[in-house]
Design a protein that fits this description.
Blueprint (H helix, E strand, L loop, with lengths): L17 H13 L12 E5 L2 E4 L4 E4 L2 H4 L8 H13 L11 H13 L6 E6 L2 H16 L3 E5 L8 H6 L17 E4 L13 H18 L6 E6 L13 H14 L2 E5 L23 E4 L10 E6 H4 L15 H16 L2 H17 L8 E7 L2 E6 L9 H14 L1 E2 L1 E3 L5 E4 L7 H26 L8
Parallel strand pairs: 3-13, 5-6, 5-7, 7-8, 8-9
Antiparallel strand pairs: 1-2, 2-3, 4-10, 9-10, 11-12, 12-15, 14-15
Helix pairs in contact: 3-10, 4-10, 7-8, 11-13, 12-13
The protein binds pyridoxal-5'-phosphate (PLP).
Length: about 450
C-alpha cells in the first residue's frame, strides 16, 4: 500500500511542513529541553484514533497520549459533558465549596474498582500526585515509613515519584537525593528468565526473591505499603506471572503491609478488564488512577478501603485543583462510555489482532524477540537474534520511520528497545489494519538499513 492509497494517513511531500518547522524553532527557543518528546508533531485537531497536524498531515495515533485516550480523542459525549460543566461553573475548589460531580465520581469509582468492601476516594490532578497521596495515606494508616516499589517501575516525576521509579535515566539522573525509606524489589521479566527455567519455576523463583528481599533490604514490620504496577508500563509492558503478583499480595496480607496497585497506565479497560488487578484475582487496599480516567482532562484518584482512606485528618490530603469539576464531568462521561460500549472487550480484540499480526511476522523479522501484552496493552521487544543484545537504535529508528509514514508510536523499557501500543480502544478495524501495515512496512525499511549498515539483520545497534 503506498501513501497515496491510504485511507486515513496522509503525509505531504514536504513533511513535516512549514508551520511545524516554525513551531519546532519556537519550542527550541522557549520550552525547556528537559521536556521530552518522541514524535515532533504539533496537533491541530484530533478525533478518535486520528491526529491532524498544523500542516494538514494526518496520523494514526498508536500512542494515545501515553495511554490517556482509551475512549479516543474528543468523544462527543465527553466534549458535551465538559462543555455543559463550563457553563455551570469551571472551578469552585472542593476545599472551599463542594460540588456534586466530585461526589458522584467518588461513588462511581467505589463501585467499579476491584474489592467488595466500602471504599472512599480522594481526587487529585496528575498520576504522580495520586502516587504521592497513596503513600501519605498508607503511612498515616499504618504508622510505618517503608514503601516498596519495583525495579523498572514508573510512578511519576515528583520527588517521591522519582524515588519509587526504577529507571535512572532519564527520570532521576542527578536529581537526588531521593526520599528515604523507599526500597526497590525485583520484578519478573519472563522473556529474560534464566535459561532452562520453566515459566512456573520462574514465578516461584520471583516470589522467593521477594521473600529474600524482605530479609536483605527492608523488614516487613517497617513497611507501610508495596506499590506495584500489575503490568509494567514505562518498564516495557512486562506482564508478570500471576503467581508472582498473588505471592506478593499474600505476603503483604500476612504482614499487614498495604498493597497499592498503580493502575494509572493499566486502568479503564486497557488490559481487557476494567482494571488489570482483576486478571490476578487481587483486591488492592488502594488503587491509583489517572490517564484514561478522563480522556485527557487532567484528573487522578486514589480509591481504597474506607477505613484506610479515612486515616488522614481533614486538610492533610487534596489540593486546589484536585478533582476539578471539568475532570469529574469528563471522567463520569468516560466511564459511562467504557461500560456502555464494552471497551474492555474491545481491548481484548485489539490485543489479539496486534499480537496475531506481529507473531506472524516474527520469522521475517527475527529481531522481534517477543510479542507480548495483556489485552490491548501490547508491545514488541527487539533483540539482536544471536547475541540477545537489546536493539535500542532499531526501536528508535522504527518509531521515527513510522512517524514519517503517518503512525505515532512510543517506546518503552529500560533499554529503550521496546515499542508499545496504546491505541485508543475506539480505533476501527480498518484503522488498526492500516496502522499495522504501515508499521510492518516501516520495520522492513529499518531492517534493510540495518543489514546494509552491519552486514546482518538487526545487528549491532544497541
Ligand atoms: C504507572 C504510572 N504511574 C504513575 C505515572 C505518573 O503519571 P503522571 O505523568 O500523570 O504524573 C505514570 C505515567 O506514565 C504511570 O504510567
Amino acid at each position: 500500500m503506498t501513501n497515496s492509497t491510504r485511507k486515513y494517513v496522509s503525509v505531504s511531500a514536504d513533511f513535516p511542513g512549514p508551520r511545524t518547522r516554525e513551531l519546532l524553532e519556537q519550542r527550541r527557543r522557549y520550552v525547556s529541553s528537559g521536556v521530552g518528546n518522541t514524535t515532533p508533531i504539533f496537533v491541530r485537531q484530533a478525533r478518535g484514533a486520528l491526529l491532524t497536524d498544523v500542516d494538514g498531515n494526518a496520523f494514526l495515533d498508536f500512542a494515545g497520549a501515553i495511554g490517556s485516550l482509551n475512549v479516543g480523542h474528543c468523544p462527543p459525549e465527553v466534549v458535551e459533558a465538559v462543555r455543559h460543566q463550563t457553563e455551570q461553573y469551571i472551578h469552585a475548589c472542593f476545599h472551599a465549596a463542594m460540588y456534586e460531580p466530585y461526589v458522584a465520581l467518588a461513588e462511581k469509582l467505589a463501585a467499579i474498582t476491584p474489592g467488595h468492601y466500602p471504599k472512599k476516594t480522594v481526587l487529585l490532578s496528575s498520576g504522580a500526585e495520586a502516587v504521592e497521596n497513596a503513600v501519605k495515606i498508607a503511612r498515616k494508616f499504618t504508622g510505618k515509613p517503608g514503601i516498596v516499589s519495583f525495579a523498572r517501575g514508573f510512578h511519576g516525576r515528583t520527588l517521591l515519584g522519582m524515588s519509587l521509579t526504577g529507571k535512572v535515566k532519564p527520570y532521576k539522573f542527578r536529581m537526588g537525593p531521593f526520599a528515604p525509606a523507599t526500597y526497590k524489589a525485583p520484578y519478573p521479566y519472563p522473556l529474560h528468565r534464566p535459561a532452562g527455567m520453566t515459566e512456573e519455576q520462574y514465578a516461584d523463583f520471583c516470589v522467593a526473591s521477594f521473600e529474600e528481599f524482605l530479609l536483605t533490604e527492608a523488614a516487613p514490620e517497617e513497611l507501610a505499603a508495596v506499590i506495584l504496577e500489575p503490568v509494567q508500563g514505562e518498564g516495557g509492558f512486562i506482564v508478570p506471572p500471576a503467581a508472582f503478583v498473588r505471592g506478593v499480595y499474600d505476603i503483604c496480607r500476612a504482614y499487614g503491609i498495604l498493597f497499592i496497585a498503580d493502575e494509572i497506565q493499566t486502568g479503564f479497560g486497557r488490559t481487557g478488564e476494567l482494571f488489570a488487578s482483576t486478571h490476578f484475582g487481587i483486591e488492592p487496599d488502594l488503587i491509583t488512577l489517572s490517564k484514561s480516567l478522563a480522556a485527557g482532562v487532567p484528573i487522578s484518584a486514589v480509591t481504597g478501603r474506607a477505613e484506610i482512606m479515612d486515616a488522614p485528618s481533614p486538610g492533610e490530603i487534596g489540593g486546589t485543583y484536585g478533582g476539578s469539576p471539568l475532570g469529574c464531568a469528563a471522567a463520569l462521561a468516560v466511564i459511562e462510555k467504557i461500560e456502555r460500549e464494552n471497551l474492555a472487550g474491545r481491548a481484548r480484540e485489539i490485543g489479539e489482532a496486534i499480537r496475531g499480526f506481529f507473531t506472524a511476522l516474527q520469522r521475517e523479522f527475527p529481531m522481534i524477540a517477543e510479542v507480548r501484552g495483556l489485552g490491548a496493552m501490547c508491545a514488541l521487544e527487539f533483540l539482536e537474534p544471536e547475541t540477545r543484545k537489546p536493539l535500542k537504535a532499531f526501536a528508535a529508528e522504527l518509531i521515527r520511520t513510522c512517524y514519517e509514514s503517518g503512525v505515532v508510536l512510543m517506546g518503552a523499557g529500560i533499554h529503550a528497545n521496546v515499542v508499545r501500543f496504546l491505541t485508543p480502544l475506539v480505533i476501527t478495524d480498518d484503522q488498526l489494519r492500516e496502522g499495522l501495515e504501515i508499521i510492518a512496512e516501516s520495520m522492513a525499511k529499518v531492517a534493510a538499513k540495518e543489514i546494509a549498515a552491519s552486514g546482518y539483520r538487526g545487528g549491532g545497534t544497541s
